[in-house]
Amino acid sequence: GNWCGGMAWRNPTLVEVAIALGGNVGSPLVAFESALAGLERKGVLHVSHTSSLYRSKPVGQVLDQPIFLNAAVRATTSLDPHALMRELQAEEDEARRTRDGPIGGPRTLDLDLVFYGNHNLVQGEPKDGPGKWIHVPHPRWKEREFVLAPLAELLDKEEDGSERCQESQERTCAKMLGRAKRRWTELGGEKLLREKDAPLRRVCAMKTPRCGDGYGDVHPVQNSSIGGDAHTLYAPGARTMVMGILNLTPDSFSDGSSRAMEPQYVLDNARRMVEAGADILDLGAQSTRPGSQPIDAEEELQRLMPALDRVLHDEELKGVPISVDTFLAQVARTACDAGAHIINDVGGGALDPLDPLLATDLRNQDQDAPLPSSMWEAVAQAENCPAYVMTHSRSYPSRMMQDQRALHYEMKAEGPTPVVGEALVRKVHSALKGKLYPWRMLWDPGFGFAKDSDTNLALLRNLGHIRKHMEGSKPLQNAPMLVGVSRKAFLGKITGLTNPKDRDLASHAALVACVAGGADIVRVHDVRGAWAAARVADAVWKGETNILK
């Protein structure tokens, strides 16, 4: 076998590796996902964990360049270190990585082998060329915050401080990841990310609303040829984002209308919402009110696409992230091809195909069984890398009233927060198998989806605790939380207001509770009132008083 540091490499078993990803030229996020897909397709790697995405300011010799996008993955390989390095560098070459620039200079894609099991391997120098040098662990891993932060997320909860993490097992990198997490904590850890002028920020693969994220360091939403991704991805900050609801359905529970599908009517409403303070617009052509019957993808697209096209190409709405509310893969795929930035899936990947037996299976087996999802595949394969909202839901709209009884007993026994948090983690692990990476995700606890009034209230009361039950997926735990309580039936039960349109004030009160519970984005019907409520809530709960930045 190949000799490296005096050790002969025979590869009868798999070895765990940690790989850091970076880039600031072109579209780094697309480059990341394309490279990982290529490596998995060739059998080079099998990715088991991914970190969140981070944007970092340049360090080193070249400071006058675009900010970087960074991440890390944990994977298994059967290749020896030299062969693996050659494969990583081949993917960099595929991304048109140039190697004649200064150290730390601009690049389309950087794939650094940080850890190879628990081995220390040194041979040759970088100048010797691909496949002829190796230095693992990476010589600068302890110095680079933009490497340490993603690495710290790759350690499983049960490994943190465990014997497995302490033992010198050659073929797992748990020990090295434990060291990386401790080093990250020594440097300040999460506190570093919260500093106003922090050189490192955690981001989600969602376009930043054009008003910025409350810190004043976000560039306008434009896909520049250099560093477009890193400049324009959303970093949850001190200001709660408002997502305006645009229902394109005649039978929506609160604002259905015979004109709802007219493109000009939708466009006028969209402009009014943005003027009133909406940061994001969410278009939905499939009613999800309890008891409603689903329509097929063809009919949903007939309702959706004319309006979506008008909104996406309207000059007044330029830079506003556009979300499509759907649980059908064909609709999501078509919407992404048209340019939608977010897929808001109320089914959490489980409602396509439109097969009632699937919902029955979800109830009768493990309620969140990792079934194949055509929705996850559709979003993963979209060329524009849209963000994806993973919602906690276990039922079709037509069955919600029946299914909420079963979910109520489970939540009453265990409490709503562990049920929701742990279920979403299981779904994220399943989605990763379909190559939908967690760094693309936002999450929604699913108010009103197969949950009765008592459960919704308990969930709202304990909203801030859900993340504690997401330890099984650090990227999800750190992802933005989107909530939708606007005009929901449980608010009507509390207030006695039977007409959903009369529940806006109650919705704003619930919104404030959501912000107190850590919500990053609120999905609302009455944008103007919600915007005002969110600003007050931010001033109280997030310390954000300079609202006109």
From TrEMBL:
Its cofactor is Mg(2+). GO terms for molecular function: 2-amino-4-hydroxy-6-hydroxymethyldihydropteridine diphosphokinase activity; ATP binding; dihydropteroate synthase activity; kinase activity; metal ion binding. Keywords: ATP-binding, Folate biosynthesis, Kinase, Magnesium, Metal-binding, Multifunctional enzyme, Nucleotide-binding, Transferase. It catalyses: (7,8-dihydropterin-6-yl)methyl diphosphate + 4-aminobenzoate = 7,8-dihydropteroate + diphosphate; 6-hydroxymethyl-7,8-dihydropterin + ATP = (7,8-dihydropterin-6-yl)methyl diphosphate + AMP + H(+). Residues 240-535 form the Pterin-binding domain. Pathway: Cofactor biosynthesis; tetrahydrofolate biosynthesis; 2-amino-4-hydroxy-6-hydroxymethyl-7,8-dihydropteridine diphosphate from 7,8-dihydroneopterin triphosphate: step 4/4; Cofactor biosynthesis; tetrahydrofolate biosynthesis; 7,8-dihydrofolate from 2-amino-4-hydroxy-6-hydroxymethyl-7,8-dihydropteridine diphosphate and 4-aminobenzoate: step 1/2. One of its GO terms (biological process) is folic acid biosynthetic process. It comes from the Eukaryota. NCBIfam families: folK. PANTHER family: FOLATE SYNTHESIS PROTEINS (PTHR20941), FOLIC ACID SYNTHESIS PROTEIN FOL1 (PTHR20941:SF1). In the C-terminal section; belongs to the DHPS family. This is Pterin-binding domain-containing protein. It comes from Picocystis salinarum.
